[in-house]
Write a structure and sequence with these properties.
This protein is α/β, with parallel strands linked by helices. The chain has twelve helices and nine strands. Helices cover 43% and strands 25% of the residues.
Length: 248
């Protein structure tokens, strides 16, 4: 599947589940969201790329005068703008429809693993930021071990066919530098998830659910997701995220 087809499939898929993301505990709150927003508190005009249901844009709007919610999926933009009373636009993260130096802050939270060309996303973000502008970034990251990273991405794609790839911390930091960013701060944190809700959000077919339930009990899942079981039921489940504050 080429990049265009991947983007079209992703857009269609997310259009069907916008409401589920609006209600998602993972997306609507957390220390990760608070940190990203704090990094942008001095901004006057911000762009939230791949805004999803709008939680990050909504939180930004409490501190930043002008916030635009952008997403490639029209239903997500509609959901975000309605839920948080924000201006929004349909936009490809890798081809942003904004002039150079348009924003002094950009956020992108838990979305880049869907982008076919993450380096293009970083180049475009650098272009639309003013000199000295801040990119507050967060995404799920893969383990440094190649076999565990392969397991992680296969597991994620089984649940969500729009998952492209999660990369390692070092790969992301290298890409930031290649795009001309100065990294002010980078942290990793684990976020606890409710396993059943996490699976349900993308509504996978029955056979995929069965396969996920088999894989989540493997030793690799225990290592990658900190899985804990109680009488055969998943009780603990989390993933690792990288948060970066970078300056153009």
């Amino acid at each position: 599947m080429d990049d265009f087809e991947r983007k079209r499939t992703t857009t269609a898929s997310f259009g069907d589940i916008a409401d589920a993301y609006l209600d998602s505990d993972v997306h609507q709150s957390g220390a990760d969201l608070e940190l990203l927003v704090s990094w942008c508190s001095d901004a006057s005009r911000a762009l939230d790329i791949a805004c999803g249901a709008g939680h990050t844009a909504g939180a930004l709007a409490e501190r930043v005068k002008t916030v635009i919610a952008a997403d490639a999926t029209p239903a997500m933009v509609e959901t975000a703008t309605a839920a948080f009373d924000l201006p929004g636009t349909v936009a490809d993260a890798e081809r942003l429809p904004f002039a150079d130096d348009s924003f002094d802050a950009v956020t992108c939270r838990i979305a880049a693993h869907h982008f076919p060309a993450p380096q293009a996303f970083l180049d475009e973000t650098a272009r639309v930021l003013t000199p000295g502008g801040v990119l507050a970034f967060e995404d799920n990251v893969a383990p440094a071990d190649d076999e565990l990273a392969d397991f992680y991405n296969r597991f994620e794609r089984l649940r969500d066919s729009t998952h492209g790839e999660s990369y390692t911390v070092e790969q992301w930091l290298d890409w930031f530098r290649d795009a001309g960013f100065t990294i002010d701060e980078s942290v990793t944190m684990r976020k606890e998830l409710d396993y059943e809700s996490w699976v349900e959000r993308t509504n996978p077919a029955a056979e995929k659910r069965e396969r996920l339930n088999e894989l989540v009990r493997r030793p690799a899942a225990e290592t990658v997701y900190n899985v804990t079981l109680e009488v055969g039921t998943v009780r603990g489940f989390s993933n690792e995220k990288l948060l970066v504050r970078a300056r153009r």
